[in-house]
Amino acid sequence: MTMTHLKLVGLIITFQYCFITSHGYRLWLPRHHVVQVENEMIKEHNKLRVHCRSKDDDLGFHDLNETEIYDFSFREHVFATTLFWCNVWKGPDFNKHHQSFEAFSSDTQWKLLCGGKICKWVVRDDAIYVFNTRTKYYAYVYAWDVPHGNTHMITSST
C-alpha cells in the first residue's frame, strides 16, 4: 500500500469512529437487538398470525396461541439504518382484524420507546402495545384496523 492509501484508510476509520461514537454506536460491533411479539389476547379466536420483515430479510409467517411469543434478534446496521416492520392478523382464519407497524427502527425515538435492546410488542384484544423495559410500563401504540395517522399514544402500567 502506498502512503496515500494508508492516509485514506486512516481518514475513513477516523471518520467512522467519530460519527459512530457520537451517535452511541460501537465501531466494529453494532448493537444487538431483540424484537418480541407476544399474544396476550384472551377472547374467543385468540390466535395471532405474525409476519415481520426488513428491506433485506423476510422472516416468514408465525402463528401464535395465547401467551406465546415470537422473537427474532439482529445486529443493528453500523450506520443506524435498520428498520423492521410487522403485520399481525387475528380472528377466525386470521381475517377479522389486521395491523401493520414498525417493530424496530434505528431512530432514537424507537429506542426510547422500547427502553433498551429488547423491543417487546404485546398484542391484546383492544390494541397493540409496546413494553418499555426501563420504565416497566406499556404504551398503547396501535389500534386494530386504524391507519397510523389516527392513533395516539397513551401509557398504562397494566
TrEMBL record:
Cellular component GO terms held in the UniProt record: extracellular region
Biological processes per GO annotation: rejection of self pollen
Subcellular location: Secreted
Keywords associated with the record: Secreted, Self-incompatibility, Signal
Pfam families the record matches: Self-incomp_S1
Family: Belongs to the plant self-incompatibility (S1) protein family.
Protein name (database record): S-protein homolog
Annotated organism of origin: Eutrema salsugineum
